[in-house]
Design goal:
With about 180 residues, the protein is α+β, with helices and mostly antiparallel strands. Helices cover about 20% and strands about 35% of the residues. It is built from three helices and nine strands. The chain has helices spanning about 10-15, 105-120, 135-145; strands at about 1-5, 20-30, 40-50, 65-75, 75-85, 90-100, 125-130, 150-155, 170-175. It has a seven-stranded mixed beta sheet, with helices on both faces. A two-stranded antiparallel sheet has the order 2-3. The relative contact order is 0.18.
Amino acid sequence: MVELRPVDESLFAWAQQGDFGFLVEHELLPAFDTDVSHCLAPLEPYSKDYESDLEDYRDYLDAPDKALLAAVVEGQWAGYLAISCHWNGFALVEDLAVERTMRRHGVARVLMDAAVAWARRQGLAGVTLETQSNNVAACLFYQRYGFRLEGIDRFLYRGLSPQTREIALFWYLPFEDVPR
């Protein structure tokens, strides 16, 4: 069973050792107003790891406009989510990471439910986040959760890696239907 747990020092130690990478076998060829599962193209498989550093979010613990949420499965740390109030009146999910061995247990859903509840308590318009076209499992999760793909940036990562195929995808979960 997945449960939220207050963050303590053991989460930071666990995250340094965690495996948050994934195998890329497809990429999403993004299109608006469509089921993204119909927009997949196969790739030569490769491993991907964003190498997030949970220490970047330590100051979220005491900030009124930010939160660091964490979940456990059977008492073991399983994942975390960092969220903040964004300039546009939405809550911004800055990082969502689930340990590879804890995936498919509902960890991401429990964390996202907590993030949505936090955003509502903050009086925000909804939740937004960005992911990449090669993180297909995440894209499918966000769509199933109710997020809408509302932004595509083909050049966001080109400054870091000029030959990258990664496309930045911006997802929104408005709390009230917002006209497009």
